[in-house]
Design a protein that fits this description.
MULE domain-containing protein; about 55 residues; about 70% helix; mainly alpha
Length: about 55
Amino acid sequence: MTKICSISKGINKNIVLSDLRRIKASIKMYDEYKIDKNIMVYLSKIGSIYQGKHLF
């Protein structure tokens, strides 16, 4: 609901630079995967970017 209200009011929040870099790297790796078709290489690269948060 908060997101819908902020969109209707025209409030935009910019993407954090680190998130933007991570998204661009993911897109680049996916494009490489489409060429190579090697799922193991793709998962090993993408897995290092999206690791879980430390809870302890």
